[in-house]
Design goal:
Structural class: mainly alpha
Order of helices and strands: HHHHHHHHH
Distance between the termini: 107 Å
Oligomer: single chain
Strand content: under 5%
Largest sheet: none
Helix content: over 70%
Amino acid sequence: MSIKQSIINRIERTKTGKRFIREKRSRIILSAIFSFSLNLLYAFYNGVLGIINQSVWFIFMCAYYIILSTMRFSAVLCERKNRNTSSEDMEYFVMKFCGVLFILLDFVLAGAIYSSLSQNIATKYGTIIMITIATYTFYKITVTVIKAIKQRKIPSPLLSVIRNISYVEVAASVLTLQRSMLVSFGEMSDTEIHTMNTLTGSTVCLFVLVLGVTLIIRGKRKEKIMAKSKIVKANEKIAEKVVGTFGKIEDTVVGGYSKMEDTFVDKYLTREGESVADAKERLKKEQEKRKEEIAKNTLQTGERKM
């Protein structure tokens, strides 16, 4: 047995590990939990720096990571509740909720970008560190694109929300990378750097806004479809109840008439030693015989007239 297989077998011994190995959805949710933890740490870090340095930019970044944490937490919480009872309603509610948070995040990003541009806030790094940051950023972009391609056929609204959160995070990382690269490899003038950062920042804000609006529209559209489906199901249940009630009434009426008929036959039409069923059978035969005689007499009368 290989080392890789041995590690996989050990992981599969636990319930959580088994789900992580066998279910793609569980791996995505676990990744969201890890990212949620990092977002909280970054929010705390930027919040502390913002208070100590009285920096508006750090406060904006703290708000940015808090919103990211909230969106990821809502996705993880929804998945936890879905383990017991799967509910598309809840997933689409989370989609709309995160769409609203995306729009709020757009304003926070706009504030952070404006603050950095007005105060010329940009971190300058050495060549090696800058190359490392750039490599990591492009790695994040590559991983996000690969996940988007692999997961595009998974219809889950919740996983779609998690992917969109990753898109926003990558877009913000690209903006941060550009700002740092422009000041670290400063071959452009301040005006050109300002213009580039303004254009990229505006593009990122527009991208986040479009994602937020799209999530809200998708959530509301699906809610309308599901509401219509619920109305149809409710009407079907009402129809079933009406038919069932009518059937019960019909059975009661028919049963009551049958009892009255049996009582009448038993009291007035049965002969000595004859049961109700035998009396009914005899009466039926007598009626058929009378019908045959009437038909025969009618035929003979017609032949005489001719």
